[in-house]
Specification:
This protein is α/β, with parallel strands linked by helices. The protein has a single domain, classed as Rossmann fold, CATH 3.40.50.300. Strands 6-7-8-3-9-10-11 form a 7-stranded mixed β-sheet, with helices on both faces. The longest helix is centred in the C-terminal third of the chain and has 17 residues. The chain is globular, with a radius of gyration of 19 Å. The relative contact order is 0.17. The structure holds adenosine-5'-triphosphate (ATP). It comes from Streptomyces iconiensis.
Length: 290
């Protein structure tokens, strides 16, 4: 997805030594009685696309918020792109979010008074970088909206608005993109386009910076979804149940998206119905495809 900003070699090494996202013994409690996360341990590899699924109230949003540094765990540690964020000050965390992470939400969250281009440039402005209009044109082109730069959100369809939101998430060349139900408000065809763009953000290697210090990998995507078809585009599907990891499915390239979606839907049905043996990490997993 184009060139990434330069980073000092030691920072680059630190980034690569860890997964893109690492959670160790992460818990999140609300008050005394609500255990939204009960001890999550996981490592998400660089350039991986992970879908997070689970019944309503299983902790998906809480997981995403804690993993993305939008919320602080009650206990445990979170590493993001090589940085341990649990102990970062609010200011440093904000800088990390603005420079290293991208966000896509179900409700698009575009500023209505700004054009598509201005919305895309916003993260660069917030990060104190130059409002690089060439870069905005590049990412709007990548999401197929090169001709729509001057339109405001109310002059765009839902799918086009979500593509602007994706361009906005990509503009800073983030290490990790967190997506919360990115296709929840879209029809099937438009959803497939957005998912293909997320997939592309992972699969397209970024070219190295001229001095060789830039990253050479694409983005890492973490996506919460209720939709098995959306999850079928991921490399791995993690299932949460009652605040704990309850198993996973790995991508099997030999399966089509509809076939993979069927496997995922079956696992979700088992989880929701709490079939004995279906909801524990380590159970044999069906191999699924994107
Ligand atoms: N601010 C809060 N205060 C108290 N309890 C909360 C708060 N936020 C979430 N919870 C509780 O934590 C648990 C996990 O909620 P979370 O929103 O993470 O689930 P979810 O899997 O994303 O659900 P859904 O699919 O319905 O969006 C639920 O029991 C929820 O009621």
């Amino acid at each position: 997805m184009g060139r990434r900003p330069e980073r000092p070699p030691n920072e680059e090494a630190r980034t690569q030594a860890h997964g893109a996202v690492e959670l160790r013994a992460v818990t999140r409690r609300y008050g005394r009685s609500v255990h939204a996360l009960r001890g999550i341990d996981l490592t998400l590899a660089h350039r991986s696309f992970t879908a997070v699924m689970g019944p309503s109230g299983s902790g998906k949003s809480t997981f995403l918020q804690c993993a993305a540094g939008l919320d602080r765990p009650t206990s445990g540690t979170v590493h993001l792109a090589g940085t341990e964020i649990s102990s970062l000050s609010e200011n440093k965390l904000t800088v990390l979010r603005r420079t290293r992470l991208g966000f896509v939400f179900q409700a698009f969250n575009l500023l209505p008074s700004l054009t598509a281009e201005q919305n895309v440039l916003l993260p660069l402005r917030l990060a104190g970088r130059r409002a690089d209009r060439d870069r905005a044109a590049e990412v709007l082109g990548q999401v197929g909206l090169g001709e729509y730069a001057r339109r405001r959100p109310d002059q765009l369809s839902g799918g086009q608005q979500q593509r602007v939101a994706l361009a906005r998430a990509l503009v800073t060349r983030p290490d990790v993109i967190f997506a919360d139900e990115p296709t929840g408000a879209l029809d099937t065809g438009t959803a497939a386009e957005v998912l293909a763009l997320l997939r592309n953000a992972v699969d397209t290697p970024a070219s190295p910076a001229p001095n060789g210090h830039g990253s050479t990998y694409g983005a890492t995507v973490v996506m919460v979804t209720h939709d098995p078809t959306a999850a079928a585009h991921a490399d791995r599907v993690l299932f949460l149940a009652d605040g704990a990891l309850a198993g996973h499915l790995e991508r099997d390239p030999s399966l089509s998206v509809p076939q993979a979606a069927e496997h995922i839907a079956t696992r979700m049905t088992q989880l929701t119905a709490a079939v004995p043996g279906a909801a524990h990490t380590g159970t044999p997993y069906a191999r699924v495809a994107a």
